[in-house]
C-alpha cells in the first residue's frame, strides 16, 4: 500500500497519534477481492497480515485516532472520538484514495475506559455488511479484510479479538463539526479549517467561501437523503443512527446491531438497547433529517440560518425522489411522463407531484400487505421478476390471505404499469435490481458459530462470495434465499455485536 497523509498533515489538533496494539496469532478470516482492488492490492500475503494485525509497522502509515462528539440516542455527548479504530492514512488506489483503519486495533485516548478491541463476531458482521451493501449499490464504507486472533477479550463472556480493516473515502462525521463548533465557541478557526478541508478533499468542485459553504451543505443534505432512501428500498436497518455514525459524504458507516428485514415490519427494531424504537426501520428517514438539523446547528457560525433552513427543506424532496426512483425500478413503474408539448413549469411540477403521491400510495399499500400477511420483504420483491402484469395470476397473489385486497391493489398496479412490450425483458429488468440474496442475520450467525466452535471460516467465505452477486440466481445456493428458520427470524443484536 502507498499512503498519503492529507488529514494527518493538514489537520493538526483534530486527532491523537496512537499506535495500534498487536493481536496474537493473527490469521485471515475474510478477504474482499473487490475492496482490495480499490487500493491496488491483489491477494493477501503474510507480510500484509502482520502489518494489518499491528505486529509490523506499515510503511508510510501515520496511525491516529480522530476526535469528535455526537448526539447518541438524542442526547449530546461532548467528547467521543475513535475509541477502537486507528487510521493508518489514505491508501492511494487506481482511481481514489481510501482511508485505511484498523477497527479493533486497541485503546486510544478516546476509548473511555474501554479496551479498544472488537470481538470476532462484530468484526465478521462488519466485514460482511460492508461488502454486501456495496454489491447492492448502496453507498457505503468498505471492508478489506477481517483478521482473527487468539487474544482473549471480555464482553458478556470471554471471546476472541479480531480486527476489521475498514476502507472509507472519508472518516469525517457529523460529530466532527459538532465537536469543533461547540468546544471552540467564539473561535471559528478550527471549524472553518475542517469545512475547508472537507470541501477540498471530497467536494472539490465547490469553493471554500460563503457561497461554497451553502452549496456544500445542500449536497450533504442530498447525499444523506440518497443513502437513507437506499436503506429503505433494500430493507436495511442501521440500528444506531447517532450523529457520530453519520458520514459527511453520505456513506453507510459504523455498523453495530444492523439487520436486513426478513418479514416486513415498519417498526422493526434491530438493536436490543433501543428500548423506545428511536432507530426502528421506519424511523430512519425522520432520524436522518433530525441528524441534519443537528449538523446545521453546528454550522451556524459559518452559514446563515436561512440558507441552512432552505437546504433542510429540500431533504424530503431528495428522499422521495430517490426512493421513488429505486422502488419504481424494483416494481417496474414507468418514469414520469407528461404528454403536452407546451406546459409551464408550475403545471409540470404539479403533475409530477401528483404522480409521486399516487406512486407512494401504491408502494405503501404493497408494503402494508406484506406486513399484514407477514411476508418476506426481499423474496416478495424478487417475485416481481416472475410477474406478468397482464395476468391476474401470480405467486404473490397465492401468498396473500386477503386476495380481494390484493386484487384491488393489483388492478391499480396494472393501470399504473400500462401495456408492456417484451415481458421477458421486463422481468429481467426487475431481477437486475431486486436481490435474491441478502445478508440475513441468521446466515451471518451460522458463519460466526462455525468459526467459534470449529475454527472454520468456510461458511464465511461462502457467504461473502454469495453476497458479491446478490442479483444472480446461483443455482447451487438456493437455500440461502429461503426465509430464516424460526430461531433466525428478526434477530436482535447488541451494540457489542
Rg from alpha-carbon coordinates: 23 Å
Beta-strand share of residues: 5-15%
**Mean pLDDT figure:** 94
Number of strands: 13
Structural class: alpha+beta
Could you spell the SSE succession in H and E letters? EHEEHHEEEEEEHEEHHHEEHHHHHHHHHH
Which parts are unreliable, with pLDDT below 50 for 5 consecutive residues or more?
A: none
Largest sheet: 7 strands, antiparallel
Into which percent range does the helicity of residues fall?
40-55%
How many alpha or pi helices? 17
* CA-based shape: globular
State the end-to-end distance: 30 Å
Brief description of this entry?
With 497 residues, the protein is an alpha+beta fold.
Give a description of the structure:
- The protein is about 40% helix and about 15% strand.
- It is built from 17 helices and 13 strands.
- Helix 8 runs antiparallel to helix 9 (about 305-310).
- The longest helix has 28 residues, at about 345-370.
- It is globular.
SSE layout:
Layout: E1 3-4, H1 6-10, E2 15-17, E3 27-31, H2 33-38, H3 46-52, E4 64-66, E5 70-72, E6 75-77, E7 85-92, E8 97-103, E9 118-119, H4 120-135, E10 142-154, E11 158-168, H5 174-182, H6 189-202, H7 210-234, E12 236-237, E13 259-260, H8 284-298, H9 305-312, H10 315-331, H11 345-372, H12 377-382, H13 395-398, H14 403-417, H15 423-431, H16 441-454, H17 458-467
Antiparallel strand pairs: 1-7, 2-4, 3-10, 5-6, 7-8, 8-11, 9-11, 10-11, 12-13
Helix pairs in contact: 4-17, 5-6, 5-8, 7-8, 7-9, 7-10, 8-9, 10-11, 11-14, 16-17
Task: Considering the chains and any ligands shown, give keywords for the structure.
7-stranded antiparallel beta sheet; two-stranded antiparallel sheet; 17 helices; 42% helix
Amino acid at each position: 500500500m502507498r499512503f498519503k497523509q492529507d488529514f494527518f498533515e493538514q489537520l493538526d489538533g483534530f486527532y491523537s497519534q496512537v499506535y495500534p496494539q498487536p493481536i496474537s496469532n493473527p490469521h485471515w478470516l475474510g478477504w474482499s477481492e473487490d475492496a482490495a482492488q480499490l487500493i491496488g492490492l491483489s491477494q493477501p500475503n503474510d507480510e500484509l497480515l502482520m502489518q494489518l494485525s499491528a505486529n509490523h509497522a506499515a510503511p508510510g502509515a501515520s496511525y491516529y485516532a480522530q476526535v469528535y462528539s455526537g448526539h447518541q440516542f438524542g442526547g449530546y455527548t461532548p467528547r467521543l472520538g475513535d475509541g477502537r479504530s486507528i487510521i493508518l492514512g489514505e491508501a492511494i488506489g487506481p482511481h481514489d484514495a481510501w482511508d485505511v483503519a484498523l477497527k479493533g486495533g486497541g485503546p486510544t485516548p478516546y476509548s473511555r475506559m474501554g479496551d479498544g478491541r472488537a470481538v470476532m463476531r462484530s468484526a465478521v458482521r462488519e466485514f460482511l455488511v460492508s461488502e454486501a451493501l456495496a454489491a447492492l449499490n448502496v453507498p457505503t464504507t468498505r471492508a478489506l479484510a477481517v483478521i482473527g486472533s487468539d487474544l482473549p477479550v471480555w464482553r458478556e463472556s470471554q471471546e476472541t479479538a479480531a480486527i476489521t480493516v475498514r476502507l472509507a473515502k472519508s472518516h469525517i462525521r457529523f460529530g466532527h463539526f459538532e465537536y469543533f463548533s461547540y468546544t471552540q465557541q467564539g473561535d471559528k478557526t478550527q471549524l472553518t479549517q475542517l469545512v475547508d478541508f472537507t470541501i477540498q478533499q471530497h467536494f472539490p468542485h465547490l469553493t471554500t467561501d460563503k457561497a461554497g459553504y451553502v452549496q456544500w451543505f445542500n449536497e450533504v443534505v442530498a447525499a444523506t437523503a440518497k443513502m437513507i432512501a437506499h436503506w429503505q428500498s433494500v430493507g436495511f436497518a442501521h440500528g444506531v443512527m447517532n450523529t457520530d455514525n453519520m458520514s459527511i459524504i453520505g456513506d453507510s458507516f459504523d455498523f453495530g446491531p444492523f439487520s436486513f428485514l426478513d418479514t416486513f415490519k415498519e417498526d422493526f427494531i434491530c438493536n436490543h438497547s433501543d428500548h423506545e424504537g428511536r432507530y426502528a426501520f421506519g424511523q430512519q428517514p425522520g432520524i436522518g433529517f433530525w441528524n441534519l438539523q443537528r449538523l446545521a446547528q453546528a454550522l451556524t457560525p459559518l452559514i446563515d440560518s436561512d440558507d441552512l433552513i432552505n437546504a433542510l427543506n429540500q431533504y424530503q424532496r431528495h428522499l422521495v425522489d430517490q426512493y421513488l426512483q429505486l422502488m419504481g425500478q424494483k416494481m417496474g413503474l414507468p418514469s414520469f411522463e407528461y404528454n403536452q408539448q407546451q406546459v409551464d413549469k408550475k403545471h409540470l411540477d404539479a403533475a409530477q407531484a401528483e404522480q409521486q403521491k399516487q406512486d407512494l400510495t401504491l408502494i405503501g399499500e404493497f408494503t402494508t400487505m406484506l406486513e399484514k400477511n407477514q411476508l418476506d420483504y426481499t423474496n416478495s420483491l424478487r417475485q416481481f421478476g416472475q410477474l406478468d402484469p397482464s395476468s391476474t395470476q401470480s405467486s404473490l397473489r397465492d401468498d396473500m390471505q386477503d386476495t380481494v385486497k390484493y386484487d384491488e391493489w393489483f388492478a391499480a398496479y396494472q393501470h399504473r404499469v400500462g401495456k408492456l412490450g417484451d415481458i421477458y425483458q421486463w422481468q429481467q429488468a426487475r431481477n437486475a435490481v431486486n436481490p435474491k440474496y441478502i445478508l440475513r442475520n441468521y446466515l451471518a450467525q451460522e458463519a460466526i458459530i462455525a468459526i467459534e466452535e470449529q475454527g472454520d471460516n468456510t461458511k464465511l467465505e461462502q457467504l461473502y462470495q454469495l453476497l458479491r452477486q446478490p442479483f444472480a440466481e446461483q443455482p447451487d445456493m438456493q437455500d440461502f434465499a429461503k426465509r430464516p428458520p424460526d430461531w433466525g427470524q428478526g434477530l436482535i443484536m447488541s451494540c457489542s455485536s
